[in-house]
Every structure is written in structure tokens, then in C-alpha cells.
Amino acid sequence: MTQCSVICTRPLCHRIMAKPSSSTPRQSHDIPSPPITYRTLTPEMRAISDSIYPFAHYRSPTPNNFYLDPDNFTCSYPIIVELLRNHPLTPLLTRRVDVPEVYIQQFYDSMTYVEETSSKPAHFKCMVEVIEYELTPEKFWHILQFPGGDFEPDEHLSNDEMIEMIYCLGYAYTLSSLSKFTRNSLAGIWDNFFTILNKCLSSRTKGLEQCGKEMKQVFLGCGFDIRNTDYRYFLWKEFVGVITDKGNPKKARTFVPYPRFLGLIIHHILDENNFDPRTDLPMYPTWSMTRLNDRSSDPAGVIPMQIPQSLLDEADLFSPTVRAYLELSPLPGTPEPETGTPEVSPRRASEGSESYHSSGDDDQGCEYEVSGGDDGVD
Asked: Which portions of the sequence form the region Disordered (predicted)?
């Protein structure tokens, strides 16, 4: 099972300091400032905090909704990090902001989902400090900087289509149903890709080898670089389902889900209302992945799909990591680098178009529509 090293931005209550030598006097700057916690607040500040949301009702912080720091993250397949530096989803993966813990607790507890009516879209009623707010899908997408909105989304993939695409990536076993999918059976490079997306864009704290149907749509849309993937719809639906679960005793979480997204939303609301956030209260933690302690090989018999050229184009093609990948994994049908790389469109092949399979197994191959005239793939 993949383990992920994380960094929590919440200050530690205790720090282990190196013992100074007897010849070196202790300097004041050697002693870190004591962290602000609820228990270190003055009675007056505790009263202010409790007036916003009672400390007795807090949910304990649990790592989820991680953020990616590409400059300080390592994994077995660094090409994946390069792909995600300038991807349309990069803001969703990397953005974070510090907000007081009491705001996160209050905001999450106040969120009430209101169904769509003839006069109003579906939205959340919520509150931060004394500000009441209606979080619509459009505001959610705008605040978190979702891609899309300027194109007509593709039709959603069917279960059978998703299973076929998973085989195409390189998968070790036969899937009797989509729900049986587990990342442990994926080719290593796509395992890395899936894990990063699932940890950053979901609220899961365990069972990260699997995901819901919406997250599978996001993963496959990214992996095959399907530009018109409806990321906005899928992640809003996932977000709504998780938040509204708090009203279901069987599904309610004992922690705050999506704290990084909630922090970005809260920060936007305060800024929009010219409300200065408090800096004298404890901040809510956010968690960064630093490395994946994962396998560096593929399951037996699995041939990984090569990264589509259009997805590689999102990365810096002059990066040593990308150049090394291209030297080891040239695109099929490109015998000489100087002849140019064909443009590979990750769409299901249309009738009469040229196509190739990503592996030698026709039963598990995946077709791509190819354009590029004389430079096309044979």
C-alpha cells in the first residue's frame, strides 16, 4: 500500500531544539515563538473564539484534501510532477491559504445544501464570522479556479468506456465492474498520477487505492487529456455528496472534509466583504505531500500506456525530466526525432481514422485518433 509523507503546516506545540554548547551563549532568536493554540489563548480571546464557534464542538483535524508542491515533491516517476506543473487542474492541486481554525469549523457546520428551484440554482447556505453567504456552483468553480466554462463539455464516459480506458493505461486484472478498480493494479506511472489526484482532489483519509465514479472520470479525463472533460460537474457533485453526508449518521465524518478548499472559499468571502481575517487565533492545518513511497515497477505482465503527446505539451518540453522520458519512450510511429512528433488526440478513434494500440494486446489496446498528415502514425 502506498504511503505518503506529509507536512502539516500547523505549528508543533513542542519543538526539539539542539542543546547549545557551553561556549555558545543562547541567542533569543534560537527559541521559536510559542505556537498559538486554543489552550494558550487568554480567557478574553477564548471567549471571542467561542462566540464564533464553540471549541467543544470542534472536529479534530485529519489529513485530507492535500496540496501539491511540485518543487518539493518526489516520486518514482518525476515526469508526472512535470505534467502537473502547468496543467489546467494545477490551481486546484496547488493553491492553499491559512485561515483561522474556528472559521473552518464554523463554516463547515453552517453549510446547508439547498436544492435547485425554478428561480434559484442549487447552492449552500453558509456563514463565516457574521457574514452569511450563498455558495453556488458558479462561485465554487470561480473561487477554486476550475478549468472550463468556455467550451461545451463532452458526454460523460460510460462504465464500459472507463473500464476499457483503464485497461489501456495498463491494468493487471480483469475488471468485472468499475467498482472493483484499485490503483494497486495500475501500471506504476499511472498509479502515481492517480494517487496525486485522489489525495489532492478528494476528502478521503483512507482507502486511497480506490475512488468514486466522479473521481474516476476526472482521473481518466486527465490521463487521456480529454480537453472537454466536465471537471466542474464531477468535482462539484463529489463535493456536494461529501458535505451533505454530515446529515447522515451512517456517513457523517468525524473530521472536516475538504479543509483546503473550504479555506480558499472562506478567504474569498472575507476578501469580497472587505473583512480582515483574524490573525490572533489558531490557524487550521493544511497538508502537503512530500513524497510517495511507492513501487517503481509495473505489475507482472502490465505494459504502461505512453503519455499522450498533448498531455506532454502541458509540461516544459525542455525540462531534463521530460527530455529523459521522451528519449526512453518515443511515441509509436516516430522513427526519427527530427521528422516531428505527430499530434495525438486522446479521443476514441472515429470511423475511418488512423489509429494505434497502446500495447501489443489487441484485447486491451486503446485507440487514439491521430492527426498530422504525412507525419501520422502508421
From this structure: 328-378
Question: Which of 228, 231, 222, 172 lies closest to 197 in space, CA to CA?
Answer: 222
Is residue 246's pLDDT more than 50? yes
Other Cβ atoms closer than 10 A to 308: 19
Judged against a pLDDT cut of 90, whether residue 13 lies above it is answered with no
Alpha-carbon gap, residue 241 to 312, rounded angstroms: 33
CB 293 within 8 A of CB 115: no
Residues 290 and 3 sit within 8 Å (Cβ to Cβ):
no
Q: How far apart are CA 58 and CA 285, in angstroms?
A: 14
pLDDT over threshold 90, residue 344: no
Task: State whether the Cα torsion 224-230-232-233 is positive or negative.
Answer: negative
- Taking the C-alpha atoms of residue 332 and residue 334, their distance in angstroms, rounded to an integer, is 6
Q: Which of 63-72, 219-228, 307-316, 352-361 is the least confident region?
A: 352-361
Alpha-carbon distance of 92 to 144, in angstroms, equals 6
Crossing angle for the helix pair 101-110 and 43-52, nearest 10 degrees?
A: 20
Alpha-carbon gap, residue 185 to 171, rounded angstroms? 5
368: left (phi over 0), alpha (psi -120 to 50) or beta: beta
Burial class, 2, CB count within 10 angstroms (exposed 0-12 / middle 13-18 / buried 19+): middle
Residue range 178-229, pLDDT digits in tens: 999 999 999 999 999 999 999 999 999 999 999 999 999 999 999 999 989 9
Whether 171 contacts 163, CB under 8 Å: no
Quick one: pLDDT at residue 171? Answer: 98
Q: Say what the pTM is.
A: 0.80
Classify burial at 200, counting beta carbons within 10 Å of its beta carbon; exposed 0-12, middle 13-18, buried 19 or more: buried
Q: How many CB atoms lie within 10 A of CB 51?
A: 10
243: exposed, middle or buried (Cβ count in 10 Å: 0-12, 13-18, 19+): buried
CA–CA distance, 14 with 117 (Å, rounded to integer): 52
Angle, helices 231-244 vs 137-144, to 10°: value is 110
- 257 by Cβ neighbours in 10 Å (0-12 / 13-18 / 19+) ranks as buried
